[in-house]
């Protein structure tokens, strides 16, 4: 650490990825002193689809960050693609999502946090916590910092979660995901999901000449190239395209914790539970959590954070479970796409539910409509 480390702070955030930076930004906007410790050197990359749906984009803008179009690519809806079938729907109210490289997003968020006065301690390891202290280690030695509040934003394998005794969770059903970028002219202004018997593929344009491609499956041995072979329509789109980034892998799945806070410690982002990448909601969920968490930190009471955290996660978790019913069921994939193709209003309302433009009770009616369509198609 080149900068001096204060002996105390109001909020100490452990983890300097998007979730941690969002927590720091939201807390600084409420006047709280904030330190962030991260072991890596920015900009930080991670395997992800790199698309923010309209609700996620709005949550980021509430943190004061608008992604410049020069650094991103808008997309207008979602397209499902199967063997010989496809269906698409546009976002409601002429909304759009935005796809942005993870490294670019991290830079923008780091700049926003620094501008607001958060202390950013890069290449700084956190070795432990107590009820009111965080213990740091760097090339200068060990350094304890007193903190009124400690926020764990250190990812799905969170050590903060373990230290705070918050590891109890529903048993997750994890999948293996791999991502790479290709230099190719985008062929669609939609985020695309390709359904196959062994895996799903995802394609999102991140610029006028690059497309982010990911593959997810339950097979730990199925890497991206083999996955593309199992998705011929996506593979055809990439014929002759030059890879411009290295393949990155990560686990993805639904993981719901019993609790996301204890004492003076709160969790955010993947440390507080995960939703499967198929929803595209992971980042947006973390940004919304940050706003709620900062409000609770300011009031001095974290009990409300538990309640609001559960409410925020309900819709993405439900949508993930719903979409994953199609996983490894080619017959159901085909019938669902037939319904969406013949009754586009069903897909449109499904997407409205997905981005929070319709209240949850509509899921019952639309679920019955989809079920009837599957029986009668």
**Largest sheet composition:** 9 strands, mixed
Q: How does the overall form come out from the CA principal axes? A: globular
Assign a percent range to the helix content.
25-40%
Number of helices: 11
Gyration radius (Cα, Å) is: 21 Å
Oligomer: single chain
Structural class: alpha+beta
Q: How many DSSP-defined strands?
A: 20
Strand content: 25-35%
Question: What are the segments in which pLDDT stays under 50 over at least 5 consecutive residues?
Answer: none
Average pLDDT: 92
Task: Calculate the terminal CA-CA distance, rounded to whole Å.
Answer: 63 Å
Question: Please, could you describe this protein's structure?
Answer:
This protein has 377 residues and is α+β, with helices and mostly antiparallel strands. Helices cover 35% and strands 29% of the residues. The chain contains eleven helices and 20 strands. Strands 5, 6, 12, 13, 14, 15, 16, 17 and 20 form a nine-stranded mixed beta sheet that branches. Strands 1, 2, 8, 9, 10, 11, 18 and 19 form an eight-stranded mixed beta sheet that branches. The chain has a three-stranded antiparallel beta sheet with strand order 3-7-4. Strand 1 (8-14), helix 1 (18-29) and strand 2 form a beta-alpha-beta unit. Helix 1 packs parallel to helix 7, helix 7 runs antiparallel to helix 8 (303-324) and helix 9 (330-342) packs across helix 10 (344-354). The radius of gyration is 21 Å and the shape is globular. The termini are far apart. The relative contact order is 0.17. The model has no long low-confidence stretch (mean pLDDT 92).
């Amino acid at each position: 650490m080149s900068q001096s480390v204060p002996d105390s702070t109001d909020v100490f955030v452990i983890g300097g990825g998007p979730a941690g930076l969002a927590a720091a930004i939201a807390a600084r906007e409420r006047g709280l002193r904030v330190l962030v410790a991260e072991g890596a050197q920015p900009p930080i990359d991670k395997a992800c689809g790199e698309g923010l749906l309209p609700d996620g984009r709005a949550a980021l803008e509430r943190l004061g960050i608008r992604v410049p179009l020069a650094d991103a690519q808008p997309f207008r809806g979602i397209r499902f693609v199967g063997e010989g079938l496809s269906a698409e729907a546009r976002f409601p109210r002429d909304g759009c999502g935005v796809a942005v490289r993870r490294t670019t997003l991290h830079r923008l968020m780091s700049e926003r946090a620094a501008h607001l006065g958060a202390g950013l301690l890069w290449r700084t390891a956190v070795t432990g916590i107590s009820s009111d202290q965080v213990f740091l280690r760097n090339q200068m030695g060990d350094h304890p910092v007193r903190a009124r509040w400690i926020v764990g934003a250190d990812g799905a394998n969170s050590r903060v979660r373990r230290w705070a005794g918050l590891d109890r969770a529903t048993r997750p059903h994890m999948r293996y995901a791999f991502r790479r970028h290709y230099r190719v002219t985008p062929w669609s202004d939609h985020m695309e999901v390709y359904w196959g018997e062994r895996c799903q593929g995802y394609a999102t344009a991140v610029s006028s000449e690059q497309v982010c491609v990911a593959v997810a499956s339950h097979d730990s041995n199925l890497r991206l190239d083999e996955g593309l072979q199992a998705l011929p329509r996506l593979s055809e789109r990439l014929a002759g395209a030059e890879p411009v980034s290295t393949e990155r892998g990560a686990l993805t799945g639904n993981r719901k914790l019993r609790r996301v806070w204890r004492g003076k410690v709160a969790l955010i982002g993947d440390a507080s539970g995960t939703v499967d990448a198929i929803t595209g909601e992971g980042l947006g969920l973390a940004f919304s959590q940050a706003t709620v968490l900062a409000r609770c930190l300011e009031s001095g009471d974290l009990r409300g954070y538990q309640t609001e955290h559960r409410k925020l996660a309900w819709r993405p978790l439900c949508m993930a479970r719903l979409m994953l019913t199609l996983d490894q069921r080619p017959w159901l994939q085909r019938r669902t796409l037939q319904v969406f193709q013949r009754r586009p209003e069903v897909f449109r309302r499904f997407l409205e539910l997905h981005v929070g433009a319709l209240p949850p009770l509509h899921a019952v009616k639309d679920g019955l409509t989809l079920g009837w369509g599957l029986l009668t198609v």
